[in-house]
Amino acid sequence: MIYYVNAAASRDGNGSKEMPFKRINDAAKIARPGDEVLVAPGIYREKVTPRFAGEENARIVYRAEVPGESVITGSEKVSDWEPYEGNVYRAIIRNGVFGAYNPYKEMVCGDWYFAPTVRHTGMVVLNDRMMYEAVTLEECLAGEQDPTSWKPEDSVYKWYTEQDGSCTVLYANFQGLDPRKEDVEIFVRRNCFMPDENEISYITVSGFVVKNAATTWAPPAAYQDGAIGPHWSKGWIIEDCKVYNSRCCGISLGKYRDPENDMYFYTKQVKSPTQMERDAVCRGQYHGWLKEKVGSHIVRRCEIHDCGQTGIVGRMGAVFSTIEDCHIHDVCTTAQLGGAETAGIKLHAAIDVTVRRCHIHNCIMGVWFDWQSQGARITQNLMHDNMPPEGTAPSRGSMYSNDIFIEVGHGPTLIDNNILMSKASVSIPTEGVACVHNLMLGAFVTVNSGVDSVVNGQREPRYTPYHIRHRTEVAGFMTILHGDDRVYNNIIVQHYPITDPDREPTHNCYEVAGTAPFDIFPSYEEWIAQFDFTKEPNMGALAQAHFGHLPVWIDGNAYFNGATVSKHDQHKLVNDTEKVSVELVEKDGHCVLKSNLFGLLEGFTDGIITSDILGCAFEPEQRYENPDGTEIIFDRDYFGDHRGLSAIPGPFAEAKDEYIVL
What we know:
Blueprint: E1 2-5, H1 24-28, E2 36-39, E3 42-45, E4 60-64, E5 70-73, E6 75-77, E7 82-85, E8 88-94, E9 124-126, E10 129-130, E11 132-133, H2 137-142, E12 158-164, E13 167-173, E14 184-187, E15 203-206, E16 208-213, E17 237-239, E18 242-246, E19 249-252, H3 264-267, H4 273-286, E20 298-300, E21 303-307, E22 310-315, E23 322-324, E24 327-331, E25 343-348, E26 354-356, E27 359-363, E28 367-370, E29 376-379, E30 382-384, E31 404-407, E32 413-416, E33 419-420, E34 424-427, E35 433-436, E36 439-440, E37 443-445, E38 453-455, E39 458-460, E40 464-467, E41 474-478, E42 486-488, E43 491-493, H5 524-528, H6 543-546, E44 553-555, E45 558-560, E46 573-575, E47 582-587, E48 590-595, H7 611-614, E49 616-617, E50 622-623, E51 659-661
């Protein structure tokens, strides 16, 4: 059955074509498996809360009749601003409009939030752009630039809030604009499109604009909400949507609400935050964290931007999902919020998750896979400018920046055929990572570091789980031994100047591109020689081997501009004579890679990399393979073009011209 919705209808209807509903949520209350909700162009100021799940072969589809012209917003217009002082106006809002959730009382705070707790979940929006919250009325009146913002010129538009009995009072510095003549809105609702219950599965949301949500901070052991998301369910498709202006997270694929474990460290403090996370993993299995019930979502062809924490967030609920052909940008760049859960895409337990063909830029980080990145693959993506602009002041609570961050997992995690153009290409305080056929302008950072702490004079290992292959069930827990990495057939360029030569590869801002940081790890031959299989095994004697570094495999890479070369890389191309330049330019509306390096690859080839060559990640004993267990043959490049019998390093099958349209 098709239900029709039209905000411009003359009156509430029954969902028929002749008498459409005025609100999408009216259809969401009754839509059943196989139904479609067709939404006419217009602005829908509501939260859509699907009540019923679809079925795998009978989805419930919510579709914008004209893609991009049906807007679901969590905000309301405010037009009765009164002059207050200078460029500042004041508006008084009666709190009844907020219901049980007043975003001008609710603070952004919680586990792993490192910035001061001074921001509210609400927001004032001027001409579709979020303004900056001031801590004091005096700051709002001054309207000065914030040097920690990535766009300091935007930070002069400030707002401030206080409570006055049953009213919320808002002050806003519009810098000479008259808010009575501009489009000014305030966040009112926490979410735009999310179920309240678990297991509302097999929903498709297609072609909507979703914006202006007063979302809350979404750490991994808490309930994670977004402007839109499936809650704790299976098989959603979010496609061709624009998601932006979320206080914290744009799309949440993440965690269910578990009162016993929700914001545990922030509220109870008595367990370490790492132990709290281990508890959350095990409790998740009790609460139905199974392949048959959770995950397998698809997010495709979406543009996600201007979110304070993450573009896409997820803990456990994103397993077996695919994020593809998305444009993610301007995430956590206002420096208003700060903590350990910030990135264009931030997922815990990215089991068999694929991120492909995405353009991710101008985010505090590109992709951050934290814990349990087992069977994950990041492939055919363009990432750049995931770092603060030169001269930006550090902000309190902010994380360091990179294109890809893989943290405290056991692999296998596959990073292949990407163009990585930020100062830090891959951060690896982890093990079991394979980098194959990438173009990397930045460094490997946090090598052999960033995992354990020394507390009370003793080492406190951060041991994390690994899983039954291609499942969610926990197979075991282990500390991070470091190593067990593969680096094959990449192009590595020392593109950025080295401003601090004293930094070590253990540093999260290490600046030296190349593979020399892997020299601290043994080769496979050196590692396996510790075990004498002709004798009875001696547990005590082998303890040093059991807790030592794991081996690495490095081969077939090309190095330019002085990028360092690992002793393990025997078949390699090193060119220190020509000055290589790599630049991303815009041409006819397309991103174009401009470089002179591709001609310098002529004549240097290596074999085709396969799953068998990469082998198995050590702890889970799982090979680098597709989620269905089939072999990967790396004979397709960034564009999907065929490589043939041999391969040149980098993400392209051929050494092409100076300009490559991406």
